[in-house]
Amino acid sequence: MTDEVSAVARAIVSCTRCPRLVAWRTETAGPAGVGSPVAGFGDPQAGVFLLGMATAAAGGNCTGRAFTGNRSARTLVAALHRAGFANQPTSEHVGDGLRLDRAWMASAVRCPPPGNRPLAAERDACLGHLRAELAALGRVRVVVCLGVFAWDAALRCVDADPRPRFRHGREHVGPDGLVVLGCYHPSPQNTATGLLTPPMLDAVLHRARELMV
After folding, report:
1. DSSP state at residue 139
2. pTM greater than 0.90
3. Domains in the chain: how many in total?
4. Is the CB of residue 56 less than 8 Å from the CB of residue 113?
5. 86-94 long-range contacts, Cβ below 8 Å, gap at least 24?
6. Can you give the residue range of the structural domain that contains 100?
7. Which of 69, 116, 140, 145 has a CA positioned 20 to 30 A from the CA of residue 188?
8. Residue 15 maps to which CATH number?
């Protein structure tokens, strides 16, 4: 990991900007949990950035790694493996051997919110971390936004005005050429109802690979 990426990670995990989230992440972590904000994870040479809504109480807040240890993580990482971005199809815990190739994953809000509903003010408080992470990574050409909340955060980062509405598969090119790509979130609800199917997720990741070149 580069010095710049490591510095951003240290700033994220020590963040206490949002009192509501500080209290909730500590309460939900449990005795074996991490209970601190979760920095991004992946390849520092990433061309694709997978952006979720918020750290999951039963996922990153317990494991300390983005998209790890819950059902959304299983769906996403299995798709990353099929697309050639991950060396294995599972993401269960830190030290499980997962490596990403040309991909990075993180959330717009780095702490778990009560009811899995982050506030707009909490999104805005975390935007500085997202901007810093993108700048430190340097090679990112595509941000795959997993849901409306992530889409809105990414568009604010690229200063899109006006901000186009979210749609699965929609693309928006920022002033610096960064492509914001919409995708339904791989949540259990979305996959169980068929709103997001494996072929739909695969198609988005295939498009992201095309765009990152």
Report:
1. -
2. yes
3. 1
4. no
5. 91/65, 91/67, 92/63, 92/68, 93/63, 93/65, 93/68, 93/69, 94/63, 94/64, 94/65, 94/68
6. 3-212
7. 140
8. 3.40.470.10
